[in-house]
Design brief:
alpha/beta, 2 domains, globular, about 375 residues
């Protein structure tokens, strides 16, 4: 099968969607498929083949919010031979062209819908127009819409309006349990809390503001703890100033951009990983949680994040309500104060990651989906020819 992924950016760019497409693509190659990825050249690299995946990188003219605008994208999609086209929201431009060209070439479009595009900030008018016009067209064209968590079709303002409910299915994100694994480390007196995200306006929904406030409450009760913040972005200075104003900057370490090769080490060096996401319509899943869990770390997250329910069922971490600083601080204090409980949770987190979220299982589910979609298209095309 020839599979084309059209996405905003690709590995080695670090981000939720980018990691998703990278891992899914290489697993599909291992299953015997021919996979091509077309994306913007961020970071600046030439087209190349990575682990069997053909990656076509296109120069982009500029960026609007989190979207790279590459003018040659439609021409590259048109000249690429594929059986099924898979694209992603929230990435306007790449998803729009993918949808239109799938129609032109009479090929099935599979859409992974990670989260809604928020209508706020300086692009509020543009996103308002986009959501009500162009995004609705993509949703209509897509044969299948994939959510990474079952509840998201209820959270999303747009998806819950779709009448054809059978075209929306849930396939979870995955984690590479060979790349992310537990490493024994020497115990230190200082406990480490770890948070990882892109520090820009688009990712404000990851809840770092609330984590900083909750961490200041923790420091009122104990001083043997530090907060490590991984990620780079235009809001980094703002977060540094907030830590300084709260008087906690001596206990907060901003790590900047962490290379992919170092992520496993940073996950293993922490005692607790926290993802306190606050927006149900923006948080599609939370892949970094799975990476921390694969490293046998107890996690703290909110009820809107993809694996939250299974984390609760497996007792692999603690779940707080979004925007509830007191509940987040209390969860931190619970795990910081009970080492044995935290370790046991971490072991169960590793088991959960292995059994439910391995990339091979996710790729096999996707392979089955592609096959079914192609079969439907083949039957439909044959009936049209007979008419």
């Amino acid at each position: 099968m020839k599979i084309l992924h059209v996405v905003n950016r690709y590995y080695p760019f670090i981000g939720g969607t980018e990691n998703y497409v990278y891992n899914l693509s290489r697993e599909l190659v291992k299953l015997g498929h021919e996979v091509t990825v077309v994306c913007a050249a961020e970071p600046k690299r030439n087209s190349e083949t990575i682990e069997g995946v053909r990656v076509v990188r296109l120069n982009y003219a500029f960026k609007i919010a989190n979207t790279n605008v590459a003018f040659f994208l439609p021409f590259e999609i048109m000249r690429t031979d594929f059986d099924v086209l898979h694209t992603y929201i929230p990435h306007p431009w790449s998803a729009d062209w993918a949808a239109w060209i799938a129609c032109i070439k009479n090929k099935p479009l599979v859409l992974t819908y990670n989260n809604d595009i928020p209508e706020k900030g300086k692009y509020q008018i543009l996103t308002w127009i986009y959501n009500r016009l162009f995004l609705r067209i993509i949703l209509r064209i897509a044969r299948i819409i994939i959510c990474t968590q079952e509840k998201y079709a209820e959270y999303s303002k747009l998806l819950r309006q779709i009448k054809e409910r059978d075209k929306i299915i849930a396939i979870p994100c995955g984690v590479d349990v060979e790349q992310f694994f537990p490493i024994k480390r020497n115990m230190t007196q200082t406990k480490r809390i770890f948070f990882l995200s892109v520090l820009d306006e688009f990712h404000r929904y990851k809840g770092l503001d609330y984590l900083l406030e909750a961490f200041s409450q923790v420091l009122n009760k104990r001083k043997d703890v530090s907060l490590f913040i991984g990620g780079e972005g235009v809001l980094k200075e703002e977060y540094e100033n907030k830590a300084r104003k709260r008087g906690i900057s001596d206990y907060v370490v901003f790590l900047g951009c962490i290379p992919a090769s170092d992520l496993n080490r940073y996950f293993n060096e922490c005692d607790i990983f926290v993802l306190p996401s606050i927006s149900s319509d923006q948080e599609g899943f939370g892949i970094v949680l799975l990476e921390a869990m694969a490293c046998a770390k107890p996690v703290i997250t909110t009820s809107i994040v993809g694996p939250a329910e299974q984390i609760r069922q497996w007792d692999a971490g603690l779940i707080a309500e979004p925007r509830n600083v007191d509940a987040l601080a209390a969860a931190l204090m619970q795990l910081l104060g009970d080492h044995n409980r935290a370790q046991a949770m971490g072991q169960r987190a590793r088991q959960l990651a292995e059994q439910k979220y391995g990339w091979r299982s996710v790729a096999q589910q996707m392979e089955t989906l592609y096959t079914e979609v192609l079969r439907e298209y083949s039957v439909k095309f044959s009936s049209l020819k007979q008419k």
